[in-house]
Amino acid sequence: MVPYDLYRLLQCPTCGSRDLIVTDDGVTCATCSAEYPRRDGYIDLMPRGVEFGYVSKYVSEEAELAHELDYRDLAPPLLAAGVRNRTLQRLLNLRPTDIVLDSGCGNGKFAAWNADRVRLMVGVDPATLFADEAVRTVALIQGDARRLPFADSTFDKAFSIDVLEHFPRDVIDAYLCETARVLRPGGRLLVFSNTREPSRLQPLIAASRWIGRQFVRAGLYDFEREARRKSDHIKALATWEDVLDAMQRAGLRPVRVVFWNSVVTSFVEHVLMKLGEAIVGRSRKNVTRCNGAAPTGASLPIGEGVAREIRARQRIRARLRRRGLVYHALLAVTLVMELDLWLFGRLRSGSYFVVVEKGAQC
Ligand SMILES: [Zn+2]
What we know:
binds zinc ion, Rossmann fold
């Protein structure tokens, strides 16, 4: 959606002017004359005439990925996404007066899940594969995190989930600096990402993966889709020290850290859930409409493993919407997965949640 409140926060991402004219079709910059059209549910506020060296594959391969990302239909926040969401709520302490930014929002699921908790939830992403629910509840912007279309000190809070691991280091620096610029002094950013550091509990995690591989070998399911999702993880911040240095360079001070040693989580994801998906997705009957159909019509043939996983997820989502037994069972599994944070949250590992604060003097 494009609520009126959003316009008051904007500045031209091309020239930095705040002198913007709102028109029937979108926004025009009175200073540099750049035009930013309003599209179906979002405004295109990409900086004009700027060539960035790095482009995420979600942007360069948007049409191809649209089909398999299966992005339109949101399930409730459960399992690993549920743990991320519950931790986001707990650590960022969202309030009804907050103006909040999700920078690199993807399909906007975390923004949508929390939109009713805050005054205004804004989601920015260069790709426009937004979920239907996000289009209804989140102020969506097609934009580049290195040149955000907002005035300084606009947001009370911001979050960044599964973003930094995709970027090279110079992009991370630009991303964090821009996020710090648009946060108000004392404003907080929550980051969830991964370094290359192994968990000290790695043998336990490896055991779950090993069991998972036995299922793959037996032909029960494959990890084709997951492998593609993770194929552009660079993890330029290789160690926890790298993370702290990057935050410091951006003028952001860590105030809270929780590591995620995925001991319970791996067992649930690699063994329990995949087994469940294999069972639910096995039958080809009752194939529902393909929610991820590319708007441009360009789609690649997808493998059987991917098709099966998408089928399983569509059926599970249909059941979850009824909030019945399956929903409550998965919520219970989510709470069990969260045990990893309560039990091992202080034990350094690759996956981390960190809350950082912008200094009052910035
Ligand atoms: Zn301008």
